Amino acid sequence: MDLATVAGLALAWGALFLSLSLEGGSLKDLFNAPAFVLVVFGTIGATTVGSSVRTIASIPSILKNVFISSSLNQSEVIDLMVGFAKIARREGVLALDEAARKINNKFLQKGVELVVDGTPSVMVREIMETEIVAMQDRHKMGETVFTTLGGFSPTLGIIGTVMGLISMLAKLNEPGKMGHAIAAAFVATLYGVAFANLIYLPIASKLKSKTADEVLTYEMIIEGVMSIQAGDNPRIVETRMMAYLSPTLRAKREKVKVEHIREKMAA
Questions:
Q1: 70 neighbors 217 (Cβ within 8 angstroms)
Q2: What's the distance, CA 74 to chain centroid?
Q3: How would you write 80-143 as a 3-class SS string?
Q4: Which sign does the torsion angle of CA 259, 228, 222, 64 carry?
Q5: Tens digits of residue pLDDT in 73-121
Q6: How far is it, in rounded angstroms, from Cα 199 to Cα 168?
């Protein structure tokens, strides 16, 4: 579970409802079924026009990527590749095939399989880099869908408000109902803006951030695979992969290693 996504959405919507409560409003004031139908389904319909039904149908799987953390973080990738380098040194590269199958990461498995199969290093890098480009294209599609949803949603909200105001103007002979009608009309704008800024656009931003993080992790895997294929020792493999870490993560990893050495010496 990606806690940042869950906590961020909970905080944003919590702030909205708390603000409503502090102003003396209630959830009942914000409920407007016609506005909800127009904004939600109208936005999806407008987005479908610019993409495809298949793309819209993939939204559940896109959301899954937003709420689930990556199976491997960058520090774990370094540990794995250093472990693979030790196996390759001790038992040969053929022994990596079985070890890689235990890892739940198709990209890493493919890289190791190519090395085990004796694929030339230039071709290994080319195949793995092509995989990264294809992954970026898939993720870009999801990002575009949610960016588009975020663009159309406020507009559909305004349309809902205008429709509500037109209905209100048709009831000018009933002044007592005008206040309620005006409030109901502006709920549509609230829906449009809230869904865009508290759901669609944050998810698009999250997808972009996850893609960048995944690309960096995959580039580290390529570097590790190439280093193992070149016959580098585990220390060289680790050193080459550490270059991809931020100074903070690098210092944290060094600190853990020093503490581990002290524990071993004290034992």
A1: yes
A2: 16
A3: HHHHHHHHHHHHCHHHHHHHHHCCCCHHHHHHHHHHHCCCCHHHHHHHHHHHHHHHHHHHHHHH
A4: negative
A5: 788 888 888 888 888 888 887 888 887 777 788 888 888 888 888 889 8
A6: 30
Question: Left if phi > 0, otherwise alpha if psi is -120 to 50, otherwise beta: which for 31?
Answer: beta
Output phi, psi for 229, to 5 deg.
-65, -30
Residue 36 corresponds to which amino acid? F
**Tokens at 28, concatenated:** 């009942």
pTM: 0.78
Q: How far apart are the C-alpha atoms of 145 and 137, rounded to whole Å?
A: 13
| Residue given tokens 């030339």 in the structure block | 120
Which amino acid type is present at position 225? V
Contact between 43 and 157 (Cβ < 8 Å)? no
- For residues 57 and 61, what is the distance between their CA atoms, to the nearest angstrom? 9
Provide the token pair at 168.
Answer: 């209100």
